[in-house]
């Protein structure tokens, strides 16, 4: 069978020819074609992370033991202009030592190494190597760069882990790791903060395990335990037990995949088996064989592993340059009207097929020739063919494709490159097994690189004639650097010995290309079981044949199928058939003797086409001792409907007068001549009939082909018309989409404006501390301000409820009637209302108008007028009090709590000979040079307000300017200001000084 080529082969100590060429990026290309033997005897794990990777790394290392014996190299996309804090952050989540990698730093187990900023990192001979990136900014692929070096360094001990990140970095590197029999682990995309990198790797079929970050440590620990073993364990084991075990594995694979790997090189199979054993943590081949037999899905996984491909664009650029040189010479030799045809068997995911397409396109452009191109690319892996058909590849291909070709033949998106339509339409992809399925023919170029290196010699010998048959004269065969044409030097000549480019040589007699029947095991038995060729059930066939013979015939006969293959023979048939020279065949059409062959093929074909029975009489079959006259009959066998079609071929000798030798001697020359003429005429008649039949069949086929061609042309025109309509619809949809985007942008801007206006209004209403309730036309609450909660018992869930359902604190029962009146008349309403606790508000009810000047409801506003109400009442009360005080002739003054003079009447000013400027606001005991600062008086005054006391007739003497010393009586009492807001002291002063004349009179009388 055909197997998928691998662009990177792994070194095999037993077979150095299989060692691969490194696929490191161009900036780190190795000079040696053989993989360096790994330098670390412990697993080295490369971890790639990008955007959102910090959370995944925290989960991973928080659950990772510190003694697994694994070395971790962490590659992340870092800003080249800022120092990374990643080492400090990871130290919080692991007890392992964390290091920023340095050039030539030796890798040790149980340590974490982190890529420095503005560096690329690789591993060589057990040490980390730092290099300057090709460009500090822009597209860099450091994860791919390290993974490729890790695969080349560690081989089957390499493990690549992809965590959260955008783009496709790491996908191509994982392909190299898997080709080296390493392990690929991907974070489950649904658990990744950014799933671009995980999804890219999974889409490329690179994942061995898809796990959340927190579950990856357990898997790594198990893998590390299985890596701690003697190298090449399976090869040592296979020397004693593998023949039987391998045969059983081949049978299991053949049963589940329909592909036979028994002619595959054993070393390659053993490497893939060991990788699957590592993945499934199986210790021995016998155990894995049992596991494989019990789990059909594992057979598919092993099948894909055997076909694993590390392909790339323009692998070995010098080889493709040489191929281009020879194609430039080939194109002018081809007929002008015929397309240039190429075949790429084992195309894998299509990179090499597109490389050939680009080379041919460049050749045509250089020659200035407009010629059609057909490139057939085939592979047995359906998933790989689907990837090839899509023509989409990770950004990592920039390491293999020049910037000029990337710009010219690829379309770049955010995370991928896609082949442009012109190149994509040149290539047709299909599933094909190059050994089992018919090959393409009349092709000019075959690119079959690294396909045969995994086949044994016998299979390679079967493949070379197929490739020779497929090529046109002077056609080019392009092989891999480790492949040769072997002993087929008469079939091909060398064009480039280094890069294995050959030219087809026309040979006089082409070898027969034999496609052996593929046999699939229906049941896998014990290892000693052998594979038996499947044949149609023949249990009742002898009875059927005997019954047919008894009904009509008794001669020799043969049962064949619709493919002319012999299934059963009855009686002696050596007189009619003879074995050919060369490869053995069971095709009856090739076994017929001279005189029988053409009529036999014609009769069989007619019966297959629908006739029930065809008979040819008097056929002269050549024998060694003379001719034999035979009647040939071909008829259909009556079988159950579910059985496949079978035919019965019957040979019956015709009894004629046999002349003796003596009679022949005595016969005349004329009689012999007449017999020969009759024989030739009979043969000519049969030949004419056969020719006429063939001509009629050919004409019928030609008419059918013409009709089919017309139908295809009509279908093609319809498809073209449909395509044009779809293209027009696409343009219209694109135009509509652009318009919708514009409208959406405008709406988004308007929403932002409305949101800002809404915020402004909300803050304005809240900051004014005005109780406002907005009602709709049904007097249901639409919105309210927080201050409204002081008037109405309203909560958030009341929005949408009628206002009448909400209780209020107002001593005002006409609110709803006033609201309905305003809604009907559109005349605003205003009134002063009071709450149950005596608080006054100014009620205003106004219509709510929309921007279109439509009435949408009402706005009910309650403005706090308590202070204004108080101020007006207090002013009136003060004016009355002042008028009363001024009317009283006795001196009065009013003191506040601090014994400052608040007011005084005119009589006081006249009595004490002071004015209001000298009195109002002064402390009582500071008046008149502190003549009133009497401790006892101060005590009495200070006790009036706290203890609600009073005093009468407190005597003092007071010196009044220009009048003299006066005696006075003081009376004080507690009073309240209007509305009880402030407590005051009312102090009355009475002058009780005795006039002088009265004093003298009193003195004389006493005398």
How would you describe the overall organization of this protein?
- Helix content is 38%, strand content 21%.
- By secondary structure, it is an alpha/beta fold.
- It folds into seven domains: 36-228, Rossmann fold (3-Layer(aba) Sandwich); 231-310; 317-504, Vaccinia Virus protein VP39 (Rossmann fold), CATH 3.40.50.150; 541-658, PAS domain (Beta-Lactamase); 669-748; 769-864, 2-Layer Sandwich (Beta-Lactamase); 878-998, Beta-Lactamase (2-Layer Sandwich), CATH 3.30.450.
- The chain has a seven-stranded parallel β-sheet, with helices on both faces.
- Helix 7 packs across helix 10 (296-306), helix 9 (285-294) packs across helix 10 (296-306) and helix 11 (317-330) packs across helix 12.
- The longest helix is centred in the last third of the chain and has 100 residues, at 669-768.
- The radius of gyration is 55 Å and the shape is elongated.
- 32% of the residues are buried.
- Mean pLDDT is 78; it is low at 1-37, 235-240, 514-539, 658-662 and 998-1007.
SSE arrangement:
Layout: E1 44-49, H1 53-62, E2 71-76, H2 86-91, E3 97-100, E4 105-106, E5 111-114, E6 120-124, E7 127-131, H3 142-154, E8 158-162, H4 171-179, E9 183-187, H5 196-203, E10 209-211, H6 216-227, H7 233-257, H8 266-280, H9 285-294, H10 296-306, H11 317-330, E11 340-345, H12 351-367, E12 373-379, H13 382-390, E13 392-394, H14 403-409, E14 410-412, E15 416-419, H15 421-424, E16 427-431, E17 443-448, H16 457-470, E18 471-479, E19 492-496, E20 501-504, H17 541-552, E21 556-561, E22 566-570, H18 597-608, E23 613-623, E24 626-636, E25 646-653, H19 661-666, H20 669-768, E26 771-775, E27 781-784, H21 815-825, E28 829-834, E29 840-849, E30 855-864, H22 866-887, E31 892-895, E32 901-904, H23 906-912, H24 916-919, H25 927-930, H26 935-947, E33 951-960, E34 964-976, E35 983-991, H27 996-1006
Parallel strand pairs: 1-2, 1-8, 2-5, 3-5, 8-9, 9-10, 11-12, 11-17, 12-16, 17-18
Antiparallel strand pairs: 4-7, 6-7, 13-15, 14-15, 18-20, 19-20, 21-22, 21-25, 23-24, 24-25, 26-27, 26-30, 28-29, 29-30, 31-32, 31-35, 33-34, 34-35
Helix pairs in contact: 3-4, 7-8, 7-9, 7-10, 8-10, 9-10, 11-12
